[in-house]
Amino acid sequence: MATPKEAKSPSSKMGPKVLFYSLLLTLQYGAQPLISKRCIGKEVIVTSSVLTCEIVKVFCALVLMARDGSLKGLAKEWTLMGSLTASGLPAAIYALQNSLLQISYRSLDSLTFSILNQTKIFFTAFFTFIILRQKQSIQQIGALSLLIMAAVLLSVGEGSNKTSSSGITSEQILFSGIIPVLVASVLSGLASSLCQWASQVKKHSSYLMTVEMSIVGSLCMLVSTLKSPDGEAIKRHGFFHGWTALTMVPVISNALGGILVGLVTSHAGGVRKGFVIVSALLVTALLQFAFEGKPPSSYCLVALPLVMSSISLYQKYPYLDKKKKKV
């Protein structure tokens, strides 16, 4: 019973830091789809942006580890087998997920992408039950049902439009936008559950997990590019084909977002992170209207409150073990 108390104490001691991290994550999470769509050209090779993001993520995590002093004792404690056991499979899954998200960014508007991306909460709950036997409360099951309703509504609604305002056909929206982001959500749920299992068993810090997964995931991507279309494109045009100075903006933003998720979760827990996600959806809607001059579609307007209610309910009513409560 000491562990929950210890987990809550950082949020009270580090109020200003938690607030600062939460604000940054809200802005990053809400702006990322729009930034990626505007700054990454269609000619940019997906693998190049994903690999560069992983390199930036490793650099940021190592800097933070050096700052908190955990980097000094790493040489004595770290082992290759321990790293592969804890981070190998999640890293490979996350690498594929990131590639799918980069593809999806280009075919969906920012708000539709952000809403569909929240289905990863459903798949995280599913895989944590399968892998960790972590149960859900009745309210959480209801919240997950709302989330699926929103995803189905958006998938059917947006996919039925013949063309979008940017000239993208319904087939492109479905196969290059909706399906990739939904598959990425499934992979995110699986990888997140595996990371939770690894952190409980291996006691890895979030920074160390970030470094390990980024390195292993990058190696997996490099191997996969040997005979992939992206690999051929890199050989023909070069690694940074289509890149501009602006391309680094979403790459760095995405890398920092990964670090911020770990910081907010470790300092404030899942409740604060849930409110961050809800706030980020509103930021996405406002930014899309401000910079693209396009109001949300009717499907988004119906789906948005469903998703916001779902996330709030899921975070507010966690499952409580009656046996432990009596003890």
Q: Can you offer a commentary on this structure?
A:
By secondary structure, the chain is an all-alpha fold. 81% of the residues lie in helices and 0% in strands. Helix 5 (80-105) packs across helix 10 and helix 7 packs parallel to helix 9 (170-202). It is globular and about 55 Å long. The N and C termini lie close together (10 Å).
Outline the secondary-structure elements.
Blueprint: H1 2-13, H2 15-39, H3 46-68, H4 74-77, H5 80-105, H6 110-117, H7 120-132, H8 138-160, H9 170-202, H10 206-224, H11 229-237, H12 248-292, H13 298-316, H14 322-326
Helix pairs in contact: 1-12, 2-6, 2-12, 3-5, 3-10, 3-12, 5-9, 5-10, 6-12, 7-9, 8-9, 8-13, 12-13
Key features?
transmembrane helix; mainly alpha; 81% helix; disordered N terminus; 327 residues
Q: Indicate the mean pLDDT.
A: 78
User: Helix amount, in percent?
Assistant: over 70%
Q: Radius of gyration from the CA trace?
A: 20 Å
Question: Which segments are poorly predicted (pLDDT under 50) over 5 or more consecutive residues?
Answer: 1-14
Number of E strands: 0
Shape: globular
Largest beta-sheet characterization: none
Cα separation of the termini: 10 Å
What structural category do the secondary elements indicate?
mainly alpha
Helix segment count? 14
In short:
With 327 residues, this protein is mainly alpha-helical. The chain has 14 helices and no strands.
